[in-house]
Amino acid sequence: MAICNITCWNDADFIRGFVYETADTPPVPIDLTGNTMRMGIRHRAEDVTEEMLLTTENGGLSITDAPNGKFTLWITHAQLLELPLGDYEHSLIRSTATGLQLRIWSGSLTVNAGPSRGNNT
Question: Is the Cβ–Cβ distance between 60 and 66 less than 8 Å?
């Protein structure tokens, strides 16, 4: 399983593109056609409260080129301002058209104070 540690600042959107591919040499893209994705964020994985949820349905994740395994993660500036500063745990789950739930990665998310976030935050 892959580890994806993310560091972001709350004065701007966090947008990153990814390619989901095999560990083969050379890597082969994994087709995401008909899939959805879900990324839950909690202070600790065992916590009941989910601090943020990013999905293909709510726009936090977008499959941009399904046959070539390409997708984008987008955490908005507004979402980052509402999330308390600190460290979180997350996992990214892929749901296939047949109902399989497959983990793409897990890791940490660190939210830092951004110096350009405005006067009221």
Answer: no
Asked if residue 88 is part of any domain, the answer here is: yes
- Whether residue 120 is contained in a domain is answered as no
User: pLDDT tens-digit profile of 21-74?
Assistant: 998 999 999 999 999 999 999 999 999 999 999 999 999 999 999 999 999 999
Q: Which domain holds residue 77?
A: 2-110
Q: Report DSSP letters for 19-45, one per residue.
A: E-B-SSSS--BPP-TT-EEEEEEESST
Distance CA(101)–CA(105), nearest Å, equals: 12
pTM greater than 0.90 (yes/no): yes
Structural domain tally of the chain? 1
